Amino acid sequence: MTVTLDAADVFALGPAGAVAAVREALAGGLDPDGDVPRAVVPLAHGQGLLMPSESGGWFGVKVATVAPGNAARGLRRINATYLLHDSATLTPVALLDGVALTTLRTPAVSVAACLDRLRALAAGGRGLRLVVFGAGPQGEGHVAAVRAHVPVADVTVVTRREGPVPGWADRRLAAAGGEVAASVRRADVVVTATSARRPVVDGRLVRDGAVVLAVGSHEPDARELDSVLMGRATVVVESRATALREAGDVVMAIHEGALVPEDLVTLADPTGSREDIPADRPLVVKTCGMGWQDLVVAVAAHRRKEGTPAERS
């Protein structure tokens, strides 16, 4: 019998549960570079994305659409559905709200990749200062995921225009305003979760030791971070192959000579090597989204609702 998990069921896993699912999968030997690349289908009014993955006795696939014109219609830019199967029988076992799943798993991957740095920054109980570019679900999700693991003292959201302050932030600034630069200079964590195709952060402003979580783009000719920052930072990516194919922040920094592929740190790198990441350089976590991330979080959400075992033979 196929069960349905609506948005509330998916979100019930919570940011901490989603981060734990990602970290447990990686610790268990999941190699992101072994994942099936997503298929991007050009459509008349946007893109279709097909994201399959198999691991731990489960197979799943997300079908997502990206419609840039939907904002003007008052509709969601991204829509998605996720279908989870038992690998042994290939029987569908759960149908999940794919938008909620994406909203939960994306910040989970970001935080899983930098949790040690976040904890070091928060040592002594000091609340972290966050600057978030973008007031959408991913901005909010990243704040929630950080808050679930370390204390947060202050959140500034930056958008193209002024507007009401979201309930999850302390203030809202317009991108062109003079206060943005000062906020970035003070920030412990900078999140970029926008639809921008050109850099939204001046890389000279990010302080040494800060964390930058970039999730807004998954195309080789779009980026939110400039080459100045990428050249200064330690850059963590989900998968080297995925980053070189889809992450414009990485692709363009390499093209401009600020970065070389060998410098990239991946989520599959041994834990010890990530502990050796210099604390006196910015840490950039650049993710594009991969099928395995949806799968491990979908399985965790399904297990929470149904009590199914973690692995299947």
If you had to describe this structure to a student in words, what would you say it looks like?
The structure is a single chain. It is built from ten helices and 14 strands. It has helices at 7-11, 14-27, 98-121, 137-147, 179-186, 227-232, 240-246, 248-255, 271-275, 291-306, and strands spanning 3-5, 39-43, 46-55, 58-66, 78-86, 92-97, 128-133, 152-159, 171-174, 189-192, 211-214, 234-237, 265-266, 283-286. Helix 2 (14-27) crosses helix 3, helix 2 packs across helix 10 and helix 3 (98-121) crosses helix 4.
Short description:
By secondary structure, the protein is α/β, with parallel strands linked by helices.
- Beta strand %: 15-25%
One letter per element, helices H and strands E, the order comes to EHHEEEEEHEHEEHEEHEHHEHEH
Kindly report the spatial arrangement of strands forming the biggest sheet.
Answer: 9-8-7-10-11-14-12-13
- Number of DSSP strands? 14
Task: Report the biggest beta sheet as strand number plus sense, adding barrel if it closes.
Answer: 8 strands, parallel
| Net shape | globular
Spans of 5+ residues with little confidence (pLDDT < 50)?
none
The helix/strand class is alpha/beta
> What's the Cα radius of gyration?
19 Å
The N- to C-terminal Cα distance equals: 19 Å
Overall pLDDT level: 93
Helix content: 25-40%
Number of helices: 10
